[in-house]
Specification:
Residues 36-282 form the AB hydrolase-1 domain. The protein is an alpha/beta fold. The protein has helices at residues 53-57, 86-99, 113-123, 145-156, 160-168, 172-180, 193-201, 206-218, 220-236, 254-262, 277-280, 282-297, and strands at 13-19, 22-29, 36-40, 62-66, 105-109, 128-133, 240-245, 267-271. It has 12 helices and 8 strands. Strands 1-2-4-3-5-6-7-8 form an 8-stranded mixed sheet, with helices on both faces.
Length: 298
């Protein structure tokens, strides 16, 4: 490739926007006249998880990666006075895009990004150009019975023992060993310690951890909403790319295959990676996205 033909990254900028009176942090790269891709992060992370993917896309697209209310560098109202739900997170991401005058976008959803993203799509079904799914579950098939039971108990059991159990998932050792290193036992060097170090920086106080606990407690409501999300897919048939880490025991590969029931023309690629595939294989994922978007442009 000649240097003149190369597509060079655009500088990533780090900004805040006032959304409904709260400061929402976001990373932005690329020029605004290009197609917009919005990257929605999962638990327990932030837009920091896309630090390697953004430069790989920014030469071709306008990329926005927000930190949810209560996560990363965004403002974090006290969970004693502000109940954290996925509906709340979706409202603030929608508010950010409205503030930035983004009228249409492609949506990259991972983990918590799926319930945030699908709520956005139900609220504004015609704003989507394409859907990119990376270990973002929308089907019961994607959850083991044990995982389904955990979310149900988290939502319905208010006992102190259950609360303590959920709270323990936000500890330093749980974040490192049960989140980031869990799926890369045979190859831990692919996972940057920057990932969990950054996340743990924002889980220092009890209030920080309670925010994430409240979202884990709310997660069961997503399972109840799966039929609505699936109906959206069947009705609108959005162009869909699925890049799924098949080594993820939290959201198993059957959840990726289940999308094909409702969007049979979706492209599906099972990667030899885990829940945080964008940390393990950002270049591979970027290639799939660029190829997919190029086909849509033809």
């Amino acid at each position: 490739m000649h240097a003149v033909d190369a597509v060079w990254p655009s500088k990533t900028t780090y900004k805040y926007a006032n959304v409904n009176g709260k400061k929402i942090f976001y990373r932005e790269a690329g020029t605004q006249h290009k197609q917009t891709i919005v990257l929605l992060h999962g638990y327990p992370s932030s837009s920091h998880s896309y630090r390697e993917l953004i430069p790989l896309l920014s030469g071709r697209y306008h990329v926005i990666a927000p930190d949810y209310l209560g996560s990363g560098y965004s403002e974090r109202p006290n969970p004693e006075t502000q109940k954290y739900t996925f509906e709340l997170l979706a409202q603030y991401v929608e508010g950010l895009l409205t503030t930035l005058k983004v009228k249409r976008y492609s949506l990259y959803i991972q983990d918590f990004g799926a319930p945030v993203g699908f709520r956005m799509l139900l609220n504004n079904p015609n704003k989507l150009d394409a859907l990119i799914v990376q270990n973002g579950n929308a089907y019961l098939e994607g959850l083991t019975l044990l995982r389904q039971a955990f979310f149900k108990a988290a939502n319905e059991d208010s006992s102190k023992a259950q609360q303590d159990k959920i709270y323990s998932f936000t500890s330093e050792q749980a974040i490192i060993n049960k989140q980031y290193l869990r799926d890369v036992q045979s190859n831990p060097e692919v996972m940057s310690p920057d990932s969990w170090t950054h996340d743990l920086h924002f889980l220092q106080t009890k209030a920080d951890r309670v925010i994430q606990v409240q979202l884990l407690q709310d997660y069961y409501n997503n399972l109840l909403d799966y039929p609505k999300w699936q109906a959206y897919l069947r009705k609108y048939q959005p162009p869909t790319l699925i890049v799924w880490g098949k080594n993820d025991p939290a959201f198993i590969a059957e959840g990726a295959k289940a999308y094909l029931k409702d969007v049979p023309n979706a492209e599906l690629y099972l990667l030899d990676s885990g829940h945080f595939s964008v940390e393990e294989k950002p270049v591979e994922i970027a290639k799939y996205i660029i190829d997919f978007m190029n086909k849509l442009a033809q």
